[in-house]
What we know:
Blueprint: E1 5-6, H1 7-17, H2 21-28, E2 32-37, H3 43-47, E3 52-56, E4 61-69, E5 75-83, E6 89-91, E7 103-108, E8 114-118, H4 119-138, E9 145-152, E10 158-167, H5 168-181
Parallel strand pairs: 1-9, 4-7
Antiparallel strand pairs: 2-3, 3-4, 5-6, 5-10, 7-8, 9-10
Amino acid sequence: MALVNTFTANQRFSEHSAAAIPEVIKRFFPDVLTITEVPASASPAQKIGYDVTILLASGRFLAIDYKIRKHDYNDILFEYAMHEADGTFIPGYVNKAHLRNDFLLSFFQDTGRAELLEMGTYRQLWQRYGSEWIRRGLFGERGYSHKFSPARGRNGEIFSRYLVTIPRAEYYEKMMQLGAAV
């Protein structure tokens, strides 16, 4: 029997760990004036990728989606597809074109380390290398993984997420190559 990731338990973990997010944001944006948590009940904002909005001293407004992970595996995670209980496949986080957040913030509870990824670059790298990373994960190449993660949603529905992790160093190497190619 597959282990089912329970949304409620993970939501409690995430909500507890979310208290650290404002301090983490200040590490990356020391000139931040305001940090506003977007409540889960603010469905339209949440659906376009806003977990937190910030206002910088320059007047620049930024939207950040954050992912909290229990352990730091020295990797970058991509959720590329979801399989709903009714059999429908939908794009995963990295493939959702309607998201409007500027950054993805990954926070690792065990180490306190955080990583701020610019969404445009994150998506470009996935578009360019995603199929290769899926293949490397499926074949179990060292440092790569491919995961099928069953989960239970807020309303008890079961769905599955398709995830790929790649070595952090690979991500930044490809990011530098992308920058050179632009």
